[in-house]
Specification:
By secondary structure, this protein is an alpha+beta fold. 59% of the residues lie in helices and 6% in strands. Helix 4 packs across helix 5. It comes from Echinops telfairi. This is Metaxin-3 isoform X2.
Length: 248
Amino acid sequence: MAAPLELSCWGGGWGLPSVHSDSLVVLAYAKFSGAPLKVNVIDNTWRGSRGDVPILTTEDSTVSQPAKILNFLRKQKYNADYYLSAKQGADTLAYIALLEEKLLPAVLHTFWVESDNYFTVTKPWFASQIPFPLNLILPGRMSKGALNRILLTKGAPPLYHLQEVEAQIYRDAKECLNLLSKRLGTSQFFFGDTPSTLDAYVFGFLAPLYKVHFPKVQLQEHLKQLSNLCHFCDDILSSYFRLNLTDG
């Protein structure tokens, strides 16, 4: 009998199984590959001092970060990419790198740095999931971590100032969304009729951006103009998570 696979991750809201992109990537991949995860949603019993979730735990190991968790699942024979050609495998790596460089900074900014969104939506939601006094500390720590990650990828000269960085990351993100929309076209998934790692990453990055109700929505508005990407998210929610949303 295989060792149990337990995933600790942030929970859901706004009709999503998780509002957290990294958690959603792993949850989606597990659905696509058939990995039998026992999901433990972070709640008031949680004692972790950092926001480095999702975390996959087995009898003899602990794995964090989506890429490492997905690699672990593949080694356990839960492989959503077994049917991909070598070129499609290479394309997957290239597109994930593009997502992390061009789209992720804007997703992080939307949730964790844009002050109206952070103080009215992100901070209250995450604080409500965790115990006192951690709820007073961890959201701010996660916000600083997000800003550092943005500046690590976008803060090099000549973009010295945060306002310049903001303008650039939203331009890059909109270009990335347009590229993803063109690449998906009228297909159900990025490589045809069966979901793969790339679909898990795109879904994980896009679904919170699409569904969470923010006061500042410039990137969300752009995404909602790309109807095939919105249908892509809705189809995964209804087909794999049995969630049928009309409020996106």
